[in-house]
From TrEMBL:
Organism: Paraburkholderia graminis (strain ATCC 700544 / DSM 17151 / LMG 18924 / NCIMB 13744 / C4D1M)
Keyword Nucleus part of the UniProt annotation: no
PANTHER family according to UniProt: CARBON-NITROGEN FAMILY, PUTATIVE (AFU_ORTHOLOGUE AFUA_5G02350)-RELATED (PTHR43674:SF16), NITRILASE C965.09-RELATED (PTHR43674)
GO molecular function: acyltransferase activity; hydrolase activity, acting on carbon-nitrogen (but not peptide) bonds, in linear amides
Protein name: Nitrilase/cyanide hydratase and apolipoprotein N-acyltransferase
Length: 352
């Protein structure tokens, strides 16, 4: 059905395309080597400029490095953190200005009040930048969670939303970015860990879950045959279709901690089709890229479904927990009770 809708949509498009070229780079990033990591980012931006790419998306925490932070002491964690006007961000912005290519990069942010966040910056040519703080941060007890969504206009027809790692697992998070007008979702990721079978674990949603080894072991056992990046390769296309948006997924690799992994990258269109990934032809030395035809957004089924929402029915979504009994169709409150009648048919008589 979706394929049929897609073919119909293509016929509806005019001959004048509005395009935006985006690339995803599974950057190799090492702990405590921010200067070297930024230098690699700058090199990728130079290559992207030669391919006329508008935006390059790098993984979560790519400046700080990917290895687990849970056991770092205060001094070690502080050494990784940088302010948004620190040397690493300034170097990235310089590379953006020099190449004319926008960049999305992740880091451990030290806010002006000293709080730490797992943050993601999109730096645009001209010195404009947007920062998203991870909503479901679990990396370390001292790393706080953000409290707002991030959506902004990048070019004609493209409004970018950012959700980091586990933020993407909550369907309401993706829907909120769509309702705020996002037409391109950046989903930077870093694999949380590797099980004994070699399968990557999904990121926990909270610090409590991260510290609960039994819970993590259960996840690994249940999904031993399917790595985290494969889960996301199923989920994110569904998010793209549901919300009528493009999605760019990127996962990083750490030579020291995960020598056999090369990262992962995927770009999906509003019909759930994979436009490019690590196995596709649209790669240049690890640069996974695609041209986004923004005309697809307006004719995607997801945009029609967004318009058909009945928001008055969804009040319960604002509650942190729900009790199934609250929605039992057989229960009727005294106030505003609804009369219920039934009929039992026996032969030719109706007993009410």
């Amino acid at each position: 059905m979706v394929l049929l809708l897609f073919h119909r949509a293509v016929k509806m498009l005019s001959s004048f395309a509005s395009s935006f070229r985006v690339a995803s780079v599974p950057l190799v990033s090492c702990r405590g080597q921010a200067a070297q990591n930024v230098a690699r980012i700058a090199d990728w931006l130079t290559l992207a400029a030669s391919r006329n790419i508008d935006l390059v998306v790098f993984p979560e925490a790519c400046i700080s490095g990917y290895a687990s932070m849970a056991k770092l002491n205060r001094a070690e964690l502080n050494a990784l953190a940088e302010p948004l006007d620190g040397p690493s961000v300034r170097a990235v912005m310089d590379a953006v200005e020099r190449t004319g290519v926008a960049a999305g990069v992740g880091l451990i942010e030290r806010a002006t009040d000293g709080q730490l966040f797992n943050s993601y910056l999109v730096c645009l040519p001209g010195g404009v930048r947007y920062c998203h703080r991870k909503l479901h941060a679990f990396e370390h007890p001292r790393i706080g969670s953000g409290d707002r969504f991030t959506v902004f206009a990048a070019s004609a027809g493209i409004r970018i939303g950012i959700l980091i790692g586990a933020d993407n697992y909550v369907v309401e998070n993706v829907r909120m970015t769509a309702l705020m007008g996002a037409t391109l979702l950046i989903a930077p990721h870093r694999t949380y860990g590797v099980s004994g079978e070699g399968s990557e674990w999904i990121q926990p949603m909270s610090m409590e879950q991260a510290l609960n080894r039994a819970s993590i072991a259960n996840v690994a056992r249940c999904e031993a045959a399917c790595s985290a990046e494969k889960w996301l390769c199923r989920w994110l296309p569904a998010r793209a279709v549901d919300n009528g948006m493009f999605v760019v997924f990127i996962d990083g690799a750490d030579i020291a901690g995960q020598p056999k992994r090369a990262g992962a990258a995927m770009i999906v269109d509003p019909f759930g089709r994979t436009l490019a990934d690590m196995s596709s032809g649209e790669t240049t030395g690890g640069l996974v890229y695609a041209e986004l035809d923004t005309r697809l957004i307006g004719v995607s089924p997801g945009r029609e479904w967004l318009g058909a929402r009945r928001s008055n029915l969804y009040g319960a979504l604002s509650r942190s927990a729900l009790n199934a009994a609250d929605f039992d169709a057989q229960r009727v409150s005294a106030k505003g009770a609804v009369a219920v009648s039934f009929a039992q048919v026996r032969r030719n008589r109706v007993i009410g």
